[in-house]
Amino acid sequence: MFGLPGFKAGDEDKFGITNNNPQTNKLDFRDYALASYSETGQDASDLSRNETAFIQASRNYLDDPENSEINVVMWSWCNIAGHDVENNYLPGMQTLINEYGAGGSKIGSGNGQREIPVSFIFMTGHANKDDNVGAGKPKNQADLIIEYCKVNKYYCLDYYGIDTHDMDGIYWEDAGDDGNSTTGGNFYADWQSSSNVGAGYYENCSSPGGSVTFGAHNSQHITANRKAYAMWYILARIAGWDGAY
Asked: pTM of the full predicted structure?
């Protein structure tokens, strides 16, 4: 998302973004902010390190008066394979929604409560080349998360879906998180090589206005571009946009 303001003319204002540096009319991220709020002896730097530590880390973070203005939280997976999404992640997120979401038990003006409710964004895990299907693997985990979000009308950033669908919407079940498929080739790299920066895609950045870099695990910009588009769409909906173009 940090490279999106440099995509096209006007995007610096339209997609203004900062990282732990609040500025007027810009979206401020607090990247990796919750890791330091984990309980003693627990690693809550992402869901894959400890798939239940995020619950109390979120409480500690949101209960801190210094974070009273925070209104969106999303936890990320490093590798979702082998984790107990159904019994840990989904009920854990629901617990936080019940406490800090709109109308939650922690929302109010009383002692120990916060006034601003929080929107929690779910996330599927990235694809693993030739190893996406089966119990506990990325596709099956994504199916559980997406179905839960559909039933409960929650937002979900679908990393797995983006990793495995090319620019024409064709699904490559054997793809990895670099758009690399045994049967379909590297469909994102192939698309980028026939497109122009500033027209078909933009260059991702390490920070707002920072150096050009590929997204994590990527050798091209398109995968991270598409994830940024999806994330901005979700945030715009949370902010009140009706989704109409």
From this structure: 0.96
